[in-house]
Amino acid sequence: MSVIEAPPRVDTNDHDKFHKLVATAQKHAPAKTAVAHPCDRSSLEGVVEAAKLKLIDPILVGPEERIRAVAAENGLDISRFEVVDADYSQDSAAKAVALVREGRAEALMKGSLHTDEIMGAVVARETGLRTSRRISHCFVMDVPGHDQPLIITDAAVNIAPDLKVKVDIVQNAIDLAHALTQGEVRVAILSAMETVNPDVPSTLEAAALCKMADRGQITGAILDGPLALDNAISPEAAKIKKIDSPVAGRANVLVVPDLEAGNMLAKSLSFLADADAAGIVLGAKVPIILTSRADEEMARLASCAVAQLLVAARRASASSAIQ
Questions:
Q1: Is residue 2 part of a domain?
Q2: 1 in a domain, yes or no?
Q3: 82-85 sheet: strands from edge to edge
Q4: Quick one: which of 121, 236, 259, 301 has the most CB atoms within 10 Å?
Q5: Statement: residue 1 has pLDDT above 90
Q6: What's the whole-model pTM score?
């Protein structure tokens, strides 16, 4: 039986928004970054390139001989980087988190270990990086034809968040949008419809989140919801539905009902609309660069740029507090 080959993928994304993101990040000093277990070509190559662009100043944490062997095999120069030896992947994660706790790193980056290994070290009660804020994940999407990066949350950490968790998810995303200097932050709380329906819990939570923003319990953005995806991002759809709102049709942050919806939305944009996705985890003591082995180089660099801008915002905030 002959094998029918899939047609080659045509790249229709010129990555303009991610290039602008990287250029903005380069205006600031690199973020000192603990990289946990960069033990394969793709993870180590991404670190080297991000360091070359002065987005991060990495500390490599993992089995030293293995890291140096991977670098040598692939012609990657890591001679300028500090290497902290670790025995195995979980040890790499623990030691990378320890560097953050010691104040030696301003950001944390996932290498070639599993996500649950690094996140296990992050959320460890006694030795991790927890804060009073719930940890959540954001995709920063470069979608062709869309005028600015689109933030989608939460598609990777919180499986079925309740209202209390969603408050932190929303606030984390708003803070991220401000760090990315997106100007006015317009948050759409997504559901399958744009009316409140007692039989659809996500519509009730959307209405509650909007009222919480009205009362100052969520700050820094304009919220509206429930909104279906079409009338959140399409001015034409919002007009047809007669939705009069500063968010409808113009949202730059999309809050999904649960992880499954968010994951499918982000991957649909990536594989059907040729969008790039940069991943970042928020709510911990430092930003966590959470890349996938399937990520292209531009997405990895954009993830580093997002973390660098968050670090720059924290530095500015700390400086203002001292003054």
A1: no
A2: no
A3: 82-85, 56-62, 31-36, 107-110, 288-289, 276-282, 136-142, 150-153, 253-255, 186-190, 222-227
A4: 301
A5: no
A6: 0.91
